[in-house]
Amino acid sequence: MENELRAKLIATAERCTRIAGMSEATIGLRAVNDNTIMKRLRGGAGFTVKTFDRLMAFMEEEIGNVGKASKAKHTEAAGT
Length: 80
What we know:
Elements: H1 2-20, H2 24-32, H3 37-42, H4 49-78
């Protein structure tokens, strides 16, 4: 189970870096005040449920914020 959750964190971080344009170090620093967390997770380090939840919540919010901004920009450009 831990490996599946780790894989989900890594996949979501990759998506967040691609969509939100921030590095994995920035994600870790802003989400859990640890700029090396993603590097350590990739190396197989353990993590708590609290860390998982904080990382996922931060990344999902960042991805969502980019989506909202993009939608607002398109709506504004369309004049609706």
